[in-house]
Amino acid sequence: xxxxxxxxxxxxxxxxxxxxxxxxxxxxxxxxxxxxxxxxxxxxxxxxxxxxxxxxxxxxxxxxxxxxxxxxxxxxxxxxxxxxxxxxxxxxxxxxxxxxxxxxxxxxxxxxxxxxxxxxxxxxxxxxxxxxxxxxxxxxxxxxxxxxxxxxxxxxxxxxxxxxxxxxxxxxxxxxxxxxxxxxxxxxxxxxxxxxxxxxxxxxxx
Length: 206
Prior knowledge:
This protein is of the alpha+beta class and about 210 residues long.
């Protein structure tokens, strides 16, 4: 009596073999992508401190890092792109990779800085880069009291807090703020008119 043998399963039809091949291909592709990304790494500038809007950009403000940006490399500032006369067009956070859109020529900047005195002092977390409002209370005719406080300029940026460490220092604090040139006249008028100014935080720097 003849014995029928079971047909052997085709080697290429083994599903586990096909899955193994697919995994090998995926692994090789992943390694290739990593190597390609490394090859595309370009030197770009990274801010080593908070730089506020309108500040002049110098090489000492940055460190050079290698980043794989691919086609986006031209959108970020490289060491060779830093030119004299460039300023920040917005606040750059410490550790931020600098996009070219965040810089402008000083002649085209609409901002400037002015120092004011906040009569009420400011919170400790209001530092360089913080966004604040400037309020003012105009003096009344009696010369001894002030009118109701109101917003003078909304959302300006703190460039620096100028601490007074002298023995005669009072509760007021001098603050250097970045302000649009169109608002300078109003602020100077408030200062020369004897208004009591106050800096109120909108949000602090990160």
